Amino acid sequence: MKKFRLYYEEYNRGPFQLLWSHFSRQHTALFGLTGVAILLLLALVTLVLIPQDPYFQDAEYLLLPPSWQADGMVKYPLGTDDLGRDLMSRLMRGSSYTFGLAILAVLGALAGGLLFGALAGMSKGFKSSTFNHLLDLALTIPSLLLAIVIVAVLGPGLTNTIWAIMLALLPQFVHGVRNAIQDQLKQDYVVAYRLDGANDWQILFSVILPNVWEQLILLSTMALSTAILDIAALGFLGLGAQSPTAEWGSMIADSLDSIYLAPWTVALPGLLIFIAVLSVNLVGDGLRVAMKKRREN
Amino acid sequence: MQLLDIRNLTLELETPEGMIRAVDRVNLSLKEGEVRGLVGESGSGKSLIAKAIMGVLHERWRISADRFSWCGEDLMRLPYHKQRKIISRDIAMIYQEPSRSMDPTSSIGEQLSESIPTHLLEGAWWQRANARKKRAIALLHKVGIRDHQAVWHSYPYQLSEGVCQKISIAMAIAKNPKLLIADEPTTALESTTQAQLFRLLASFNQLKGTSILLISHELETVARNTDSLSVLYCGQLVEAGDTETILKDPLHPYTNALIKSVPEFQPELAFKQQLYALHGSIPTLQHLPIGCRLGPRCPNARKECVKTPLPERVQNHHFSCHFPLSKVQ
Amino acid sequence: MSQLLEVKQLSKAYHKAEGMFRSKKIQALLDINFALDSGQTLAVVGETGSGKSTLAKVLVGIEQPEQGEILFGGSPLNCRDYQKTNHLIRYIFQDAARSLSPNQKISDILHAVLRYSTVLNEDQRNDKIANTLKLLGLLNEHGNYYPHMFSGGQLQRVALARALILDPKVLILDEALTALDPSLRAQIVNLLLDLQQKTGLSYILITNQLRLVRHFADQTMVLHQGRCLDYGPTLDVFNQPTHEYSRKLMKSIQF
Prior knowledge:
The structure holds 3 protein chains of 3 kinds.
Chain A: H1 15-24, H2 27-45, H3 87-122, H4 125-133, H5 143-154, H6 158-185, H7 188-195, H8 200-237, H9 248-255, H10 264-296
Helix pairs in contact in A: 1-10, 2-3, 2-10, 3-4, 3-6, 3-8, 3-10, 5-6, 6-8, 7-8, 8-9, 8-10, 9-10
Chain B: E1 2-15, E2 18-31, E3 35-39, H1 46-54, E4 61-64, E5 67-70, E6 73-74, H2 80-90, E7 91-94, H3 98-101, H4 108-115, H5 128-142, H6 148-152, H7 161-173, E8 179-183, H8 191-208, E9 211-216, H9 219-225, E10 228-233, E11 236-242, H10 243-248, H11 253-260, E12 312-314, E13 317-319
Chain C: E1 5-18, E2 22-36, E3 41-45, H1 52-60, E4 67-72, E5 75-76, H2 82-85, E6 89-92, H3 106-117, H4 122-135, H5 152-164, E7 170-174, H6 182-199, E8 202-206, H7 210-216, E9 219-224, E10 227-233, H8 234-239, H9 244-252
């Protein structure tokens, strides 16, 4: 069926709009994007605005079931945990820790990756190889194990977790940025820019980065899902967020004893971790498919 | 005998903006032993027609034709597997970039041996492998590769484009096809190799009676090597007939422009003089004009040209134009 | 008066690594000499591997020659100093679509060229861009388009605009007309002839299409494996080729 248009107008879209139109045609990608957007909003808003204090322990209502069950109360919509703290506020606060801090870790790794990757990509030969493989030592150990080792050295706590995850993600970013830059340098238009009289830095900022940022976003989404899982895992092991911090992983660990009495205290944080990782992966997949479709056209 | 008889072939594609007619009622016919050229620039649909004949068009395309017969049999009415049997037995195709159209992971010897159909080998079943290899070597010699040892164990990426094209011709003629479709076979080759290739194709046409459908966007290569010619523009058949007649006396403005844009066909053109060129550029698939698709660019265009001209015939010279260049009786 | 562009004894070799410790020397160009006047066209023909692309790259400064000198108006030229030489020699790529960055508008690309290589202010730059686009048959509004919105012929014109905006004297067309359709090629050739007549631009045309060379080029040079086999006025090279290979080449276009 022909799409209805009131005026016959030449509709020419720029590259970013083309990408968005391909992306928005995929329902799963939009679903993922909505999930990410909601979690990001929660992560930012709950720092100021939250229904109830996540750390206030109400001794009267311990292990209260969620409000849709017979024993539940609307005051505590998702119930309480074994110390009487409101589960919903804790889950919302947890999004700033698990999701928000994961984003911070990824941004930090991206910045470091850009620095080393640009130095590696713009130089040639031995110097390039040195910058590229400088941080490869961190690739020898799986990221979770590396984070555990670093936290064991520096001591437990959320800030140390962030540093550990950033270091674990850094080598992938360095490689990714350097490969993307080197791919771009082989293109004809970079040679054309050089012939126009641009020096290396101008080429990097005017030509290479605008063409590369989409691949970097793709790398970041993959790293983000790893970061979320790592923060949650470290929290679960007790090496990351310490109780009473309302981080999803540590919430699961705390409530594990009472799993038979109150399964919702374990299921709900787990469900949210699942939703967070799923949304991020859907966005990454959607972006990859959109980039491929745009290249084909 | 008529090998290929296609009447009013239409290829349409469904898009969010509506149906796009990439090929609009094209007639094509081929006799046995004929070398026919199909000339058209990019967007003319010539590669689509070749793929439609071979039956390898993507499923999104809708093929409709009044007549699409091969050796008298109507291909449109047969079920798919019967179509494929007939096509694979009688028609072969060679492509524009030969090193890309061959399997990069197997050596030339393996690919060539594989392309020889079993029913053409003589001997009992234990002699088959040997017969296959002997026949493959004979094919390589036939296309002009004397030193088959060097080529037998190499991979496509190690050989030059000219040698790869000769090998793909060898693979195509391995099954003794009645029709060989050559889709821009010489654009990726050097001029010396181009000459060799055309001599090769001409020899196959003369010695074995293979018909050849030569598709190209360069008029000069097609003009030298073909008996008859069909000119396409934006999916419409503009002119068809004997090569000599068309070159001497083109009836359609587009053919005229094509001939005049080649300096070689005009000996009286001064050095560094402006070439004759139609203004404007080829319309994209989304913005095809109604009626005669040359309309916006044609110097003779008038009001009647918004209706697609019907094909007319003068002796053996077919053309579709409301106002042809010279009124030939 | 000295010639516009003179090339004397130009040589270039590549070292290809063979195995772990040895390297093979491939002579891409050996002892190339030619001279070009303003308003003239030199055609360089040869098969792949003959060195014609290397010659183009050396002339424009992408590669460094080992020996020989390039003189412009009598004085030697250092082709690597892009900001100076791109006012004299410019280069057109074979595939116009690949030579334009896909995420930039045309006017941004042209502004960037002017910013890197000239000292014009914003208004002067806008004027120059408008004039150049008009010269090539494009509209001012085309400056707001991205490269993927253009057709093939228009992209060639955009590439020409980027090359000509610095008012060079010599333009190197590295197989730029090979991939075009005949009608488009005729239009671009007409445009190039027009520019040559109006502004005295010289062309170095690297191509394999001998028929176009015969119509368009004043001088022709035949290269084979890095060596110059024949060089001279076009009609001489076409009618009386001295080398076996050139003879074979000229005969092939009779087919």
